[in-house]
């Protein structure tokens, strides 16, 4: 506590807190500061460790002999003297012992810790404090009670509140006391709040019943359900649309349970639901909802600081889905365009863009009468609507009485119980959740990083957190709000420092330029987004709306304001920031959009991209007419459903006519649609567009091959660093004048560089020798460059090879042992390390195929598929169809398919030349050709009962899976139509399945696809096959001993 006492003696303590207390004290200076630490000797023993004019630090020994460290702080108001405190305590941290430091730190971290006076801004003082916490593994333990601990006690207009007092704890303290609570007590005789630390035991909530999806794998579970539930075969579409494995409500049953055991439980469920609709009443227990609270801000202590997530009973979800499915088609006519929610395709981003444009108008307007905007918002609007008002509005909107009754039975009189630390509160009636806005972006990222720390995380762990959490944090803001480059630089600085294990101001070694790190993994980087490039792709969805003629609220306003410049994405000085940002992504839109033709009335022959992403006005050598004549629409080239060949011959050459005739159009009843060429979908392929911004380098040079190896992420990242010469060997450090020696620490008397740590190190060679007694290893190379080539080649063809995995894990764990030796830590000797490497590696499954799914017949509504790592033959009576597509360029593609039986014998191999720029479309056409051929064999040969479709394209398999669901069919796009045709042919077989095959094990199909880009061909069983094709067949399935006829 701060005493403001320049003399602290025994009499002072006795008068303050009693005679049974021992103490340590630091006197104040000029009535400022001063600290007393007092304790009861009968309860614990205290051994002072450090006394400084700003802190008393002591070791506490309890009667149970457990120990922990406690510090009492009164930090100086001067930031430079306060820095002395950080520097004094930092050498004692991080500590393996529990560590608590509390008191008046006289520093703020973010705006939430201040009210009144000048707004808070991040400065040297706050950054020094955050660095002290991060480097010392100290975490703010939060609080309950008042938000601020200090007040200047001035008149209300000049009053300032701040949170200057807090308690920090390290990871060991949090592990020891997970239920620790810091309470801000009321201010009485001081301008500061007292802090009370409560060491509450960690509560383990009583278990509750919850159906686990893992139980679905046990056949016994089905018999248990059958024994306790009546059978029925009635299918309810609402049940099939339930999400699987979502958090259940109070009933404890997930959607997975209802879908898996529907044949058993449907009779009871359907009877109950129909009765509820007939009577217009729901049992109260169906509407009982448990609410879990998710903090929206750090140190949340008020109800408004939490986001409530309602967990409804599954039976209630089924009823709600039935109503939603019926109501959904009517919503566009019921909800005005100004409302950005509830309607697919609308986005709150549209309202944000229009608002920014209006604000820009206020700044630039010279209107004499002035302009003003009114922003109206109703806080917690849904909470404040009366049930009577809702019922009357439904009546005004002409909802039938029965419908109104159904809606009201669902929304009225629910009961809620709040889940707090696993315990349910008492029932609360007629309460509903509310939402809040984002807090400051930089503070949010800093707080995230600080809550994780760096010392307990590996580089692989930090990379995962950056890609999954930190990089996604600014996405919402970047996609529709102008963010200054200085803020982006600050965010990237935080990410850089966190990645390499430091913080904003410490000089942690950054081993590679950030531009090399911020590349997709397939291009040699770590997959972290470059925020400037990423923003460009995120904004492309808004730019596309100007051309796609989307029904969004801001489009007409922008076209009216910017006129011709709107569709050309031209910006100039004085334009609003949001328009300039949209223009940044204009090139992305122009280079990647293409029209799908239905009627052709919306598409200009000359100016719009409809044959490729390049408009015809830039194809002068293919056109037989003057450009001035080409001002009509594509509709003029059509006779409703067919092309007007005479008109085409008047305008275009033979090659271009053939290209146009190959275009598969949308059904004539639909409208022309502007889509992204890469996917032929109106949804923006953000990730693909971002990847296209980077040059695709050689896999060996970039280290992209490392990510294909089937080893744990830590090993992948280490080998990636080796491929980029970013490993701090002593030679690497010596070259940068960081180390005085460049010799191996194992006493090899050789320079420690990449050649040495990968091949010649005695420690590594001895470990290799012990491994080789149990498993064969890759032959040694003479240099790291040669070894790098060997590893990359092996990864390309056999990424799960045990020799490859052993070699990569050997490199990583030998390096870890070397680092442990250098830093004076424990490490394993070569025999022990060899055993660890073998256990580390061979515990990873080589074949991940769950065989129990492969031979079962899937539901007609949902095709399931597994993931394969090598080519496997089907069972007897099955045909396996492998396929691939290849884009040659300039709109030319090839599709290949390969049909084999249970012996691996080739029944048919073929390829077709086609015209498309979409790899997904090429993959679908390959599947279509393969399935048609397999169907033909089925009619010729008796005993063929099953078909197994296998591809290296998960996107194509997903599309067929979706198309197989007859409830979801909507073939507006050509690829949807092809996928539905494939699914229909699969259903012609008695048994069918699909699987994903690693690209490197699909070499034979890839060969066929590349060959087909030149001309069509078909090979059938008994024909001589090309020698190189037979070699690929054997390479795809090295364990299958089959002889092929070769030329």
Explain this structure to me?
The chain is α+β, with helices and mostly antiparallel strands and 1047 residues long. It folds into 6 domains: 44-198, 4-Layer Sandwich (Deoxyribonuclease I, Chain A); 221-333 and 385-428, no CATH class; 436-529, no CATH class; 574-693, no CATH class; 704-843, no CATH class; 878-1036, Nucleotidyltransferase, domain 5, CATH 3.30.420. Helix content is 39%, strand content 15%. It is built from 41 helices and 29 strands. The protein has a 7-stranded mixed beta sheet, sandwiched between helices. Strand 1 (21-26) and strand 2 form a beta hairpin. Helix 20 (531-548) packs across helix 23 (577-584), helix 20 packs across helix 27 (686-692) and helix 29 crosses helix 34. The longest helix has 22 residues, at 919-940. The chain starts with 9 loop residues before the first helix and ends in an 11-residue tail after the last helix.
List the helices and strands and how they pair.
Layout: H1 10-16, E1 21-26, E2 35-40, E3 44-52, E4 55-62, E5 67-74, H2 79-89, E6 99-104, E7 114-115, H3 124-135, E8 138-140, E9 150-151, E10 161-162, E11 165-170, H4 171-176, E12 179-184, E13 195-200, H5 219-228, H6 237-240, H7 255-260, H8 262-279, H9 284-287, E14 288-295, E15 306-311, H10 314-327, H11 331-334, H12 348-364, H13 387-396, H14 401-411, E16 415-420, E17 423-424, E18 428-429, H15 441-452, H16 459-470, H17 475-478, H18 485-499, H19 514-517, H20 531-548, H21 555-562, H22 564-568, H23 577-584, H24 586-592, E19 593-596, E20 638-639, E21 642-643, H25 645-651, H26 654-661, E22 673-676, H27 686-692, H28 699-702, H29 713-723, H30 730-735, H31 754-760, H32 762-772, H33 784-797, H34 802-822, H35 830-842, H36 851-854, E23 865-868, E24 878-889, E25 892-900, E26 906-915, H37 919-940, E27 946-951, H38 954-963, H39 974-987, E28 991-997, H40 1003-1012, E29 1017-1020, H41 1027-1036
Parallel strand pairs: 5-6, 14-16, 23-28, 24-27, 27-28
Antiparallel strand pairs: 1-2, 3-4, 4-5, 6-11, 7-10, 8-11, 9-10, 12-13, 14-15, 16-17, 16-18, 19-22, 20-21, 24-25, 25-26, 26-29
Helix pairs in contact: 2-3, 13-14, 15-18, 20-23, 20-27, 29-34, 32-35, 34-35, 37-39, 38-39, 40-41
């Amino acid at each position: 506590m701060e005493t403001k006492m320049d003399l602290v003696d025994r009499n002072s303590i006795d008068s303050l807190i009693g005679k049974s207390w021992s103490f340590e004290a630091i006197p104040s200076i000029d009535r400022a500061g001063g600290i007393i630490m007092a304790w009861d000797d009968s309860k614990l023993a205290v051994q002072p460790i450090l006394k400084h004019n700003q802190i008393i630090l002591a070791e506490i020994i309890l009667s149970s002999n457990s120990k922990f460290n406690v510090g009492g702080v009164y930090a100086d108001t001067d930031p430079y003297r306060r820095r002395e405190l950080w520097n004094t305590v930092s050498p004692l941290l991080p500590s393996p012992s529990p560590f608590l430091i509390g008191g008046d730190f006289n520093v703020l971290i973010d705006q939430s810790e201040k009210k009144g006076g000048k707004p808070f801004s991040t400065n040297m003082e706050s950054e020094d404090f955050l660095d002290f916490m991060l480097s010392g593994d100290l975490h703010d333990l939060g609080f309950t009670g008042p938000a601020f601990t200090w007040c200047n006690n001035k008149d209300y207009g000049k009053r300032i509140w701040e949170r200057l007092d807090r308690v920090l704890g390290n990871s060991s303290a949090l592990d020891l006391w997970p239920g620790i609570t810091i309470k801000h007590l009321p201010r009485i005789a001081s301008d500061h709040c007292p802090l009370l630390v409560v060491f509450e035991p960690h509560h383990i909530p009583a278990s509750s019943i919850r159906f686990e999806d893992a139980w679905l794998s046990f056949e016994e579970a089905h018999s248990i359900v059958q024994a306790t539930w009546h059978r029925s075969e009635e299918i309810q579409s609402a049940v099939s649309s339930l999400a699987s494995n979502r958090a259940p409500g109070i009933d404890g049953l997930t959607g997975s349970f209802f879908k898996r055991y529907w044949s058993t439980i449907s009779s009871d469920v359907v009877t109950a639901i129909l009765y509820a609709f007939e009577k217009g009443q729901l049992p109260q227990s169906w509407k009982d909802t448990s609410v879990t609270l998710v903090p929206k801000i750090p140190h949340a202590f008020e109800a408004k600081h939490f986001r409530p997530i309602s967990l409804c009973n599954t039976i209630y979800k089924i009823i709600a889905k039935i109503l939603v499915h019926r109501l959904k088609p009517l919503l566009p006519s019921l909800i005005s365009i100004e409302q950005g929610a509830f309607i697919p395709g609308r986005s709150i981003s549209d309202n944000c863009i229009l608002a920014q444009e209006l604000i820009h108008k206020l700044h630039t307007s010279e209107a004499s009468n002035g302009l003003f905007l009114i922003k109206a918002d109703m806080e917690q609007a849904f909470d404040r609507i009366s049930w009577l008002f809702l019922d009357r509005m439904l009546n005004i909107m002409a909802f039938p009485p029965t419908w109104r009754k159904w809606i009201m039975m669902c929304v009225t009189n629910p009961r809620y119980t709040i889940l707090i630390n696993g315990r349910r509160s008492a029932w609360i009636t007629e309460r509903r959740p509310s939402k809040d806005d984002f807090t400051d972006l930089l503070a949010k990222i800093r707080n995230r990083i600080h809550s994780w720390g760096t010392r307990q995380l590996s580089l692989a762990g930090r990379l995962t957190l950056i890609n999954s959490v930190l990089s996604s944090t600014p996405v919402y803001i970047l996609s529709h709000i102008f963010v200054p480059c200085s803020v982006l630089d600050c965010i990237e600085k935080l990410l850089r420092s966190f990645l390499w294990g430091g913080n904003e101001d410490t000089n942690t070694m950054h081993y590679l330029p950030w531009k090399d790190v911020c590349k997709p993994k397939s291009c040699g980087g770590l997959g972290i987004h470059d925020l400037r490039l990423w923003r460009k792709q995120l904004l492309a969805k808004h730019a596309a709306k100007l051309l796609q003629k989307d029904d969004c609220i801001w489009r007409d306003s922008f076209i009216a304001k910017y006129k011709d410049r709107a569709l050309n994405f031209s910006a100039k000085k004085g334009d609003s920031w949001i328009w300039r940002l949209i223009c940044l992504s204009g090139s992305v839109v122009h280079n990647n959009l293409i029209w799908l033709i239905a009627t052709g009335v919306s598409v200009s022959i000359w100016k719009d991209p409809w044959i490729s992403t390049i408009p015809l006005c830039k194809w002068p050598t293919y056109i037989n007419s003057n450009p001035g004549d080409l001002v009509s629409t594509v509709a003029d080239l059509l006779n409703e459903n067919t092309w007007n060949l005479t008109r085409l011959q008047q305008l275009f050459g033979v090659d271009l006519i053939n290209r146009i005739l190959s275009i598969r159009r949308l059904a004539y009843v639909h409208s022309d649609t502007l889509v992204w060429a890469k996917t032929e979908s109106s949804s923006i392929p953000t990730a693909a567009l971002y990847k296209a911004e980077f040059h695709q380098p050689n896999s060996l040079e970039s280290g992209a091959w490392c990510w294909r190896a089937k080893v744990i992420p830590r090993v992948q990242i280490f080998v990636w660093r080796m491929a980029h010469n970013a490993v701090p060997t002593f030679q690497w450090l010596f070259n940068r004048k960081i180390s005085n020696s460049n010799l191996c620490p194992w006493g090899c008397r050789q320079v420690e560089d990449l050649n040495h740590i990968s091949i010649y190190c005695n420690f590594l060679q001895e470990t290799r020798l012990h491994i080789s007694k149990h498993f064969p290893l890759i032959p040694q190379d003479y240099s790291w460059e040669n070894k790098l080539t060997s590893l990359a080649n092996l990864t390309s063809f056999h990424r799960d090879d045990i020799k490859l995995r052993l070699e990569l894990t050997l490199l990583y764990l030998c390096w870890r042992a070397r680092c442990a030796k250098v830093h004076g830590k424990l490490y394993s000797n070569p025999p022990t390390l060899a055993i660890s490497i073998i256990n580390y590696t061979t515990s990873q499954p080589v074949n991940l195929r769950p065989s129990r799914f492969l031979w079962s017949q899937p539901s007609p509504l949902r095709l399931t598929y597994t993931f394969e790592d090598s080519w496997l033959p089907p069972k007897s009576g099955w045909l396996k169809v492998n396929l691939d597509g290849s884009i040659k360029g300039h709109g030319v593609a090839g599709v290949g398919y390969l049909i084999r039986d249970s012996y691996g014998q080739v029944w048919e191999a073929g390829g077709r030349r086609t015209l498309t720029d979409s790899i997904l479309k090429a993959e679908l056409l390959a599947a279509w050709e393969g399935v048609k051929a397999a169907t033909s064999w089925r009619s010729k040969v008796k005993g063929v009962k099953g078909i197994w479709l296998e591809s290296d394209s998960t996107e194509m398999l997903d599309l067929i899976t979706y198309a197989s669901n007859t409830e979801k069919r909507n073939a507006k796009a050509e690829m949807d139509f092809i996928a539905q045709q494939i699914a229909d042919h699969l259903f012609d077989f008695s048994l069918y399945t699909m699987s994903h095959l690693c690209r490197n094990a699909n070499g034979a199909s890839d060969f066929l696809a590349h060959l087909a880009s030149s001309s069509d061909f078909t090979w059938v069983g008994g024909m001589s096959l090309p020698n190189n094709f037979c070699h690929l067949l054997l390479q795809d399935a090295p364990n299958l001993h089959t002889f092929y006829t070769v030329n």
